[in-house]
């Protein structure tokens, strides 16, 4: 009969003994930020035979062109894998940390350890020699950061996987060449270890990343403003007579295709078939290659529908950025420009157009890329003279709120008040944690320095009630930081709310 092992509680151990034990204790025991993920380890273990084949196939495809560069050099005839398998022992995740950010992403930090039994044998044919190189006793310990971004409403609900290392990984292995362990050579082991850590750090140590595309960019692309169209409606000539007195009361509606925003309108010119407006408008452009400016001239009527006198379309791809172009066009009955039956003269309209693209506050610099695309981010800042002058677009994204609580009901929506203009998000019923993701835009002639934007969370009861509306809290945001930095993304505590928080992203883009 064997003796029972002697056990002692941890509090009885001295410091040195505890430090010896700590490396073997999972992170979810030592650090409360890390979660225990036995289910994930079970998943990886069951999937490992298939992951092994998939990873090895990727390794082969990545290394073939690399090996091909050496064929014919240094008397090398061939380089190929004789065996390539990651073995039967899967890596283990000793804890998983989920990081919360204000961005549209999900950040995971798994603590990975792998003491594997791979069978990796590389054969180099050199003249008449056949040299075998075998990797043995592989051990890896790493803490990668895995970011799923951006989150999109298309399965699997994220477009890319971005991987980087928060610290240099611990990699230990042996290398056998022609049956001999070359790592036994004095000094070589430490040199190889140092070189591997350095090379891996160069490739994937944050802020360098490995980006793996999951969804086609065209599938999840969300059109964002890229520029501003300046429109000057100059005049119209020889318009149709629609009134009883042989005249018309014309005005012009203008809008860009692909937008659901209300059309902009000129003033009405009473009893005038040759009106001059000289009015200026600004329209937000999202795709200058496909969008079209639609101009419609109407005759205003006090009663009933307004008669359309004519229309024209101008594709934005005809414009050169920053160059003003004049158009003097015949008005047509409808969009079928080449309709042979539309021969009636409807007059002309004259407009001046200028397309001004937004400046890029930041740009990505492409570094060396592997098959997935390793990227290194760079940053470019506009000069102060560019930031603090000129027209631009103020974009306000109301993402959501947390712990907003009304005394009588909880059907929250948000109001955005700026320069006398009020925007409103959709209402979400019966919740204290609404997610709106509504974006509003303000076109400004100059940067909003020393100005504030007021955001208030409201609740509205459906139906008739004496207490149909109530405020759930508000916040006033100073826009100086937005102008200086180009963007803020922050959660603000709501004033007059016990625990309420609102998540707001604001951008300032100059032209």
UniProtKB/TrEMBL annotation:
Pfam families: C2, SMP_LBD. Residues 33-215 form the SMP-LTD domain. GO terms for biological process: lipid transport. One of its GO terms (molecular function) is metal ion binding. InterPro entries: C2_dom, C2_domain_sf, SMP_LBD, Synaptotagmin_plant, Synaptotagmin_SMP. Keywords: Calcium, Lipid transport, Lipid-binding, Membrane, Metal-binding, Repeat, Transmembrane, Transmembrane helix, Transport. It comes from Corchorus capsularis (Jute). Belongs to the synaptotagmin family. Its cofactor is Ca(2+). One of its GO terms (cellular component) is membrane. Transmembrane segments: none annotated. Residues 206-329, 374-492 form the C2 domain. It is a single-pass membrane protein. It is found in: Membrane. Coiled coil: none annotated. This is C2 calcium-dependent membrane targeting.
